[in-house]
Design goal:
This protein is about 40% helix and about 25% strand. It has about 625 residues and is α/β, with parallel strands linked by helices. The strands form five sheets. An eight-stranded mixed β-barrel has the order 15-16-18-19-20-21-22-23, surrounded by four helices. The chain has a five-stranded antiparallel β-sheet with strand order 2-1-7-6-5, sandwiched between helices. Strand 5 (about 110-120) and strand 6 form a beta hairpin. The chain is rod-shaped and about 130 Å long. The structure holds ligand C2E and calcium ion (2 copies). Ligand C2E binds near residues 400, 416, 471 and 585.
Length: about 625
Amino acid sequence: MPLATDLPSGLQDVPRATSTGAPVENLRCAPGADAGELRLRQALWASGASVWEWRSDDNLLVIDPFELGGERIELPAMNPRAFGERLHPDDVEVARQAWRVHLQGRRPDFEVSMRLPQPGRTRWLHLHGRVVERDAQGRALRALGTIKDRTAEREADRSMQAMARELERVARLDGLTELPNRSALEDYLTRRLCASHSFALMQLDLDGFKDINESYGHEAGDRLLRAASQRLASVVGLGEPGRLDGKDLLARWSGTSFAAVLAPGSGETEVRATAQGVIAAFSAPFAVGEHALSLSPSIGAVLAPRDGSHPVELLRKLDVATCAAREPGRNRLTFYDAGLEDDVQRRVRLFSLLRADAERNGFAFVAQPKVDRDGLAVGAELLMRWPTEAFGPVSPVEFIPMAEKLGLIGLMGRHALHAAARLAARCQAAGQSLPVAVNLSPKQLLQPGLDGQLLLACERAGIVPALLELELTESALLVGIEVVTPVLRRLRQQGFSLALDDFGTGYSSLGYLRHLPFTKVKIDRSFVMDIERDERALRMLEPMLRLCEVLGMSAVAEGVETAAQFEALRRLGVPEFQGYHFARPIPVDDWARQVESAQGRPIALPLVPPGSAAA
Ligand code: C2E
Ligand code: CA
Ligand code: CA
């Protein structure tokens, strides 16, 4: 018994293979057509569609003539296989599958778009229909439907899709470096994690941009960032965010930081190799205009899925690791581990405490004397101390970089300048001309009002600038000799002494020293430490001292801890010394009282504790 229940009324008696594709007047003459059917066929014709029919008894597909790209196509009745042979080979299986799914009743309709290659151009056909008769077992006996040229819609669709893809691509690209941006990175990570690969994720953060933007302008900063991204790309592979292939992916994470998703299967070994490559790639400075600018990368790393299986979690932990990598004294590459979280929390609290204490000058100042070859005091260095209730004393090695990051160093530096000037004034009042050295951070050096502040501190305390010695590390010179030199010259002209601190630890050659108006060079503790045991360390000091002599700069050996070191350095001809052997840093008041109690006489160090002379 034929099942024709879902056949629209008016189509039930459609005669086989009428000529719907014929001109409209022919439609009226279609044999066996009643008014309803005629209207239906006219409507089909008007919409550019035609009719097809298939019957199981002869397994023939009969397609009424139809229009394709304005041309009338007439196909002979043929079995579906023969029809398939006329289609684009890629579409045959698609059509077969759609037909199968419909026959099995999993889809109410049979609907498929497929290509019919035509001379000159491939056209898209859209077939839509359904089985209209089944036997008692449910087997299809007859199917009926429409056929229509869909080429124009397909092409419009395709160009829309291409446009959408392009828009999507642009929205996921960082405009400056043309690398995938953060949203593309997060998406990519999600897909990598879903694919259940193990892999490593790194953050490459470039320190020092803020200074560069401030000193050279944002345009130079942007150019530098582009150049930096190219150097990174030379180390990290450039996979595409759209593909989960075996490549690395480099993306721009945020302002000055990049992320590298290493290839599937990567782990600690690959991270170390990549980090080494990146550090080597950044060892040479960048040429931006006439400037040579240096950047140093801090690198954090996490491993997936060990450290997390969600992108947000991984990225947060990566931030923690990179934050830790930036801390002084740490390796530039840091892998995430849970212990770092406590460090980060501690730092967050310290940051807010420091802000409050910078405002109200919650710092203490200590002084560490310097001596000449006879062990007699020739001055002192002022060092800042930060006592906190929550964490006890925090080392300047930790809080000075924090202050720089928070933009508080100017304010804190001013407190130090005034403390130094007041100490020098007290020594002067006690009849001793003992200069006080104060450390200046590179950031302070670039602040516009620095000379004004220094002069004001001297004026308030009633001292001449020669009683203040300004200590600067080589890192102050990193922002560019051409920026720093005029500032130093001006300070020198105003009468301040200038000392180059931690000499020998910086990257730069000795040659630049010639052009800078330093009065003193402080030889870093690391050279002094080994001189007793290591003959070579002693030999390295000789040329340094000779250089200072040639340049007319006085030398100070830092970190002298033993009498033997003092002796060895004296034999080499070092004129000035500082270190625990003579005195530890002591509260400024204690030092001032010491000077006052000497009543103008020289102060010999180390101080002999009361009673020990007799022992
Ligand atoms: P620095 O300028 O090189 O100061 C010398 C550091 O070496 C001081 O550490 C001092 O306590 C320590 N030291 C002195 N003699 C010896 C010795 O014989 N053996 C050993 N092992 N160490 C010795 P401190 O006070 O922790 O300061 C560390 C650094 O923090 C300073 O290094 C300086 O760069 C910075 N700093 C301290 N106070 C200030 C400040 O007021 N302003 C700025 N910008 N930086 C400061
Ligand atoms: Ca110093
Ligand atoms: Ca030093």
